[in-house]
């Protein structure tokens, strides 16, 4: 929780996309972005024990195609890739296994849909909020499970667009993201059915261009 509070303070601070965002914008656009995420924690149960782990700050990339449904509402189809290195893994219970290799990473490849609401303002900057959901592969290598599995991603965004030309803008965006997947077989156990869940908050920046 301490790490989540720290990461959440970053959520409102990134340059993230160049876009067509003046009052009454319509049409479509595409975007490319990159960002950082704060330190986080995850945990899950397995037969006879459980795991608690911490991750270091991570980073990610994104690409999206969006449509202005109305002057204030837009939707996107988006692809994202995120990676965070696992720092500490604590395993409690279960078979006693000596593990010498260092823990690996939490990596996700997600395809999803986002919805944004752009607030009308009298100045050039335009604040917005958004939310999204995605489905894809989540790869966890924490010395206990080391496999990819299908999982879900939920996210909430808040930021501001800053137009730079008639067809492009920069925006600063904060993101809260949650990954969830089933835990299957692992080192020393089989048939687990608990959920792995990892929550992060961070900053995303990029470019969006009107089409």
Binned strand content: over 45%
Which word captures the global form?
A: elongated
Question: What's the helix-strand series?
Answer: HEEEEEEEEEE
Assign the structural class, choosing from mainly alpha, mainly beta, alpha/beta, alpha+beta, or little secondary structure.
Answer: mainly beta
**CATH topology annotation:** Porin
3D structure, described in words:
The protein contains one helix and ten strands. Strands 1, 2, 3, 4, 5, 6, 7, 8, 9 and 10 form a ten-stranded antiparallel sheet that branches. The termini are far apart. The chain has one domain (2-195): Porin. A hairpin with a 2-residue loop joins strand 8 (146-165) and strand 9. With 211 residues, it is mainly β. Helix content is 3%, strand content 65%.
Topology:
Blueprint (H helix, E strand, L loop, with lengths): L1 H7 L18 E11 L2 E7 L2 E7 L2 E11 L4 E21 L11 E14 L7 E16 L4 E20 L2 E15 L12 E16 L1
Give the structure's gist in a few sentences:
With 211 residues, the protein is mainly beta. The chain has one helix and ten strands, in the order H-E-E-E-E-E-E-E-E-E-E. It has one domain: Porin (Beta Barrel).
């Amino acid at each position: 929780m301490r790490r989540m509070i720290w990461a959440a303070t970053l959520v409102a601070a990134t340059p993230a996309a160049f876009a067509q965002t003046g009052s009454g914008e319509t049409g479509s656009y595409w975007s490319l972005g990159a960002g950082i995420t704060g330190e986080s924690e995850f945990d899950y149960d397995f037969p006879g024990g459980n795991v608690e782990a911490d991750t270091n700050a991570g980073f990610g990339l994104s690409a999206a195609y969006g449509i202005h449904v109305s002057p204030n509402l837009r939707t996107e189809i988006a692809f994202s890739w995120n990676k965070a290195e696992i720092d500490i893994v604590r395993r409690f219970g279960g078979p006693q296994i000596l593990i010498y290799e260092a823990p690996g990473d939490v990596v996700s490849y997600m395809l999803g849909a986002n919805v944004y609401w752009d607030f009308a303002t009298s100045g050039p900057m335009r604040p917005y909020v958004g939310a999204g959901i995605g489905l894809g592969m989540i790869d966890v290598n924490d010395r206990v499970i080391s496999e990819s599995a299908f999982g879900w991603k939920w996210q909430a965004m808040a930021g501001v667009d800053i137009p730079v030309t008639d067809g492009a803008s920069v925006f600063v965006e904060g993101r809260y993201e949650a990954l969830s997947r089933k835990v299957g077989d692992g080192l020393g156990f089989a048939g687990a059915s608990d959920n792995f869940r990892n929550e992060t908050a961070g900053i995303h920046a990029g470019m969006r261009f009107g089409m």
